[in-house]
Amino acid sequence: MSAAKVAVITGANRGIGRATALRFADADYHVVIGARDAAQAEEVREAIAAKGGSAEAMPLDVTAPASIDAAADALAKAHSSISVLINNAGINVGQEHDIVAASYEDIEASLAINAIGPLRMSRALLPLLEASRDGASIINVSSEAGSIAATLDPENDYASMKAGSYRLSKMALNGVTALLSKALRDTSVTVHAMCPGWTQTDIGGPDAPNTPEDAADLALGIATGGVDAPDGSFRNREGALPW
């Protein structure tokens, strides 16, 4: 079994997930690249290997319980523990619709990937996370768009953003974060939500001010204690965010 610290990252084949996989590999983690696109996941693994890092590509669909169970079984056979789980896989569909106009198909798909998927992953990998001798972290890639306080603040940067399906799903993910933190308070596993901000990804587009590497640095800082992120916290690169 692997003796290195293991970081499992969902949606690690592109965007923030890919950058985070590369960043954690640079920090001497063994990275598990979870993705539905096997070819892209393998490309990330090869990029890490070319730099002397350690990684494995793993087929993973966070909306499919059987896929999550298979991944958890494979991880338990290969590794004695997991140090970090980064729930990064996500979608933003129907961006032009607020919650009144959003289709139920978009709402259900967003909740399945952005909120229920992270909960399923966290529960499935909990035994391996609890087995980490130095403690472990669950990091949920959320958004300030999912802050209830921000939603109700007309002066907030996200005030004009519609994206009802996405915003609801990130509110749910923040709830998952808070509830998991409370449930695991007496364990060695901490739970965090992070907001990467408007980022240059397939969702954010090329004009966004933040890069995927910025988000990767924040995730690594939370995992290693390099930034102030207490158990049960929600923050971006500047500091704490309101729920």
From TrEMBL:
Listed Gene3D superfamilies: NAD(P)-binding Rossmann-like Domain
Any one GO BP annotation for this protein: secondary metabolic process
Pfam families registered for this protein in UniProt: adh_short
Single GO MF descriptor: oxidoreductase activity
Entry's Gene Ontology cellular component terms: cytoplasm
InterPro entries the record matches: Fungal_SecMetab_SDRs (IPR051468), NAD(P)-bd_dom_sf (IPR036291), SDR_fam (IPR002347)
Domain of life: Bacteria
UniProt record similarity statement: Belongs to the short-chain dehydrogenases/reductases (SDR) family.
Protein name: Short-chain dehydrogenase
Species of the source: Litoreibacter roseus
